User: Which sequence fits this backbone?
């Protein structure tokens, strides 16, 4: 760049490398160590449950999972969540990243839709949209109330209980019912409650 | 739609007092803030051996930026490659390959935060904090500092004879300590309250509840909240987790989503207020803000409408007479389509680049709006650089406008001559040159592109990646297999040119103009703060970008839309 006929006045400071390096180290210590340490420590003290991953514990203190991380369910006695491109592994979170013109997306969604229709005994035009679309994170813990409703009959049958008792647990597991957002069902919370109150016939098999 | 409007309103309400505070915090008058923050600032000056009141010329200011960023890039590069041998690595993550590490260092040092790795799996806690978080503070502060330096020289109405543009380290220190740190700490605590982890422990390993699924699931932890706060506030965008704020651990609730969305836009808008006060140019800033808001509303409503449309791949597979509708592929249920679309348009308008839904799976016209947001890149824009970029277009409009009314070109009463116009044109033309040039090379040479989609969307993926790099945005159509030496090195070029050319050219122009004699204003003088001139500037922005990028858009998202079943 050609040097302008710049004023000769404030040119003195040539900003030496040493100054840049020293400033960088000071900033790294303040912002890269001190700031995260303090906010993490204070946040962990004020909100110990949330700070450690919002874990769900069983009666015996065993960790069942996190309210914020979906799990994979295949058993008849369980509610099933949204398709996941990550196998519900929070260590490998990822979306499908498939575009609307993707044949692969069409094939995956067709298979998912057919599976839902077969499992719940209905036609494709009763399959809720959230059960055939993969979430962005691959660990979306929620399904819509409609997606829970179509699974109630099967879960009740598999556990040998009244549909009404399952419905009641679905309502208990609704989240975001306030003025922000729309109500959704937390699948892991719901399934943990089911296991707690109405253990499936198959448990204790091992 | 109501929640979209509400979040716009929240930002507007918060930005005015914040802007006034910023103007006060970096102003020359001494006051209570000096006493309050002196506790942190004085040791910073002493430890780095600085004289904060030492005025710099624009060249010295620019050199200080180049040197600090050079040092930071080398520091982060070495840290990423050597993290396997260093502490704070509970999950035993190995060092990064040299090219990924270089790309990551440059990407974070340019306020881009484009990621060719997956955050939580490839960076240790030390790398995430010491390198990434440091850069997430330093880079937005740099953008704001340059903007303020320009405001002091080019924009300030009464010339007080001083030719210095300020002191870079002084501006940096005050912006970091007085503005960014308190805001980030507050947002970090609010996010932890909502469920974002704050812990230095290793991941939990959990057996899945269903006994038929014999898998162990990991629940990752880390000092996540502190990083997410500054990534949102600092138009950074690089998240703890690969899929960013779509991950429930990074963005757990609708309230957290409101906080994070508002944080994207807050400082870029507040800086308009701050500059209006610092330079005493209220009318000009209201005009610029109105143009930006108009662009923002057009883009946001287009994306919201587009994502409410069905996804063409899913036709006939689900219930359409009741229940959820719209394009839910790649979106989280707790946000739905509207709030995902709002985040998508704001994150591309402001060069933030964080996401709460996968842009790759947006409907074609929604995806095209995101691209256009990044081409324009001055719809509020990145911290500091958004308004600097707008000034660049304003300079071009002043040149054209002066010629149209038959006057010698001038800017704020100072003559715009060949040297200025040569550099302004170069800074504007660098964008299509770099983006289209690299896109063409990548698709022309076999084996380089690594796209996950064929046809039109494949081209969109490549175009999006370079556009995002040049715009210092950092979001991506993430299906792209971009962790290759080709992608890493070409993106490094786009990142550096896209960051420093459009930032330093206006600083140079301000430095050149301030030494020139003012022309007396008369009846024919271009009224830069008039509605007509703002209209002209908006027109210049639209025309320049359409001329540059319309052909590429036709081959990408427009081709995709017209060949898809739904037309969206």
Assistant:
């Amino acid at each position: 760049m050609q040097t302008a006929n710049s004023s000769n006045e404030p040119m003195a400071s040539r900003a030496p490398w040493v100054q840049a390096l020293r400033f960088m180290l000071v900033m790294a210590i303040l912002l890269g160590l001190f700031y995260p340490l303090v906010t993490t420590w204070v946040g962990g003290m004020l909100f110990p449950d949330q700070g450690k991953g919002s874990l769900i514990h069983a009666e015996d203190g065993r960790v069942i999972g996190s309210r914020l991380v979906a799990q994979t369910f295949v058993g008849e006695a369980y509610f099933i969540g949204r398709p996941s491109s990550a196998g519900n592994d929070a260590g490998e979170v990822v979306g499908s990243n498939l575009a609307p013109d993707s044949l692969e997306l069409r094939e995956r969604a067709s298979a998912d839709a057919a599976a839902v229709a077969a499992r719940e005994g209905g036609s494709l035009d009763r399959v809720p949209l959230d059960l055939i679309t993969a979430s962005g994170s691959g660990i979306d813990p929620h399904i819509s109330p409609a997606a829970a409703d179509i699974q109630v009959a099967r879960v009740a049958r598999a556990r040998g209980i009244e549909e009404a008792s399952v419905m009641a647990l679905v309502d208990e597991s609704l989240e975001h019912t306030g003025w922000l957002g729309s109500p959704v069902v937390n699948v892991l919370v719901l399934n943990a409650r089911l296991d707690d109150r109405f253990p499936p016939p198959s448990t204790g098999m091992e | 739609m109501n929640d979209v409007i509400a979040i716009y309103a929240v930002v507007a309400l918060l930005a005015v007092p914040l802007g006034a505070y910023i103007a006060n915090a970096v102003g020359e008058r001494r006051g209570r803030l000096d006493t309050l923050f002196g506790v942190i600032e004085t040791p910073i000056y002493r430890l780095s051996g600085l004289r904060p009141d030492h005025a710099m010329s624009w060249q010295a200011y620019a050199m200080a930026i180049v040197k600090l960023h050079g040092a930071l890039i080398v520091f982060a590069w070495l840290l990423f490659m050597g993290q396997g041998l260093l502490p704070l690595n509970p999950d035993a993550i190995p060092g990064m390959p040299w090219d990924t590490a270089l790309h990551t260092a440059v990407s974070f040092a340019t306020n881009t935060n484009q990621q060719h790795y997956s955050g939580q799996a490839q960076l240790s806690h030390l790398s995430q904090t010491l390198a990434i978080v440091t850069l997430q503070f330093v880079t937005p502060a740099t953008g704001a500092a340059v903007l303020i330096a320009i405001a002091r020289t080019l924009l300030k109405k009464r010339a007080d004879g001083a030719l210095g543009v300020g002191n870079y380290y002084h501006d940096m220190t005050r912006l970091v300590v007085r503005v960014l740190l308190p805001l980030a700490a507050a947002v970090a605590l609010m996010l932890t309250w909502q469920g974002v982890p704050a812990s230095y422990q290793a991941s939990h390993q959990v057996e899945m509840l269903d006994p038929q699924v014999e898998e162990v699931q990991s629940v990752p932890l880390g000092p996540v909240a502190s990083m997410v706060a500054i990534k949102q506030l600092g138009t950074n965008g690089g998240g703890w987790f690969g899929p960013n704020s779509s991950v429930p651990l990074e963005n757990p609730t609708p309230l957290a989503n409101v906080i994070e969305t508002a944080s994207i836009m807050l400082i870029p808008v507040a800086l308009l207020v701050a500059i209006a006060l610092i330079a005493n140019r209220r009318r000009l800033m209201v005009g610029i803000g109105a143009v930006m808001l108009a662009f923002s509303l057009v883009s946001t409503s287009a994306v919201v409408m587009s994502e409410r449309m069905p996804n063409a791949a899913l036709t006939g597979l689900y219930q359409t007479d009741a229940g959820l509708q719209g394009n839910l592929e790649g979106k989280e249920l707790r946000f739905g389509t509207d709030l995902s679309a709002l985040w998508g348009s704001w994150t591309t308008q402001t060069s933030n680049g964080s996401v709460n839904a996968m842009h790759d799976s947006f409907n074609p016209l929604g995806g095209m709006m995101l691209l256009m947001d990044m081409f324009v890149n001055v719809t509020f824009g990145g911290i500091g650089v958004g308004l600097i970029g707008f000034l660049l277009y304003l300079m071009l409009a002043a040149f054209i406008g002066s010629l149209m009314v038959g006057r010698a070109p001038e800017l704020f009463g100072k003559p715009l001559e060949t040297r200025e116009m040569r550099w302004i044109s170069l800074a504007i033309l660098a964008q299509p040159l770099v983006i289209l040039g690299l896109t063409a090379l990548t698709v022309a040479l076999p084996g380089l592109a690594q796209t996950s989609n064929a046809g039109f969307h494949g081209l969109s993926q490549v175009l999006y990646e370079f556009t995002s790099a040049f715009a210092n945005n950092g979001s991506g159509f993430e299906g792209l297999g971009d962790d290759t030496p080709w992608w890493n090195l070409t993106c490094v070029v786009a990142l550096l040119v896209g960051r420093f050319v459009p930032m330093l050219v206006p600083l140079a122009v301000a430095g050149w103009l301030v030494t020139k004699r003012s022309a007396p204003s008369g009846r024919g003088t271009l009224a830069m703060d008039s509605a007509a001139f703002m209209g002209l500037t908006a027109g210049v922005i639209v025309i320049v970008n359409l001329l540059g990028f319309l052909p590429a858009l036709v081959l990408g998202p427009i081709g995709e839309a017209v060949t898809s079943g739904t037309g969206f």
Notes: Residues 1-14 of chain A have pLDDT under 50 and may be disordered. The first helix of chain A runs from residue 17 to 46. Chain A touches chain B through 120 residues (CB under 8 Å). Helices of chain A lie at 17-46, 48-51, 103-120, 145-159, 163-172, 187-197.
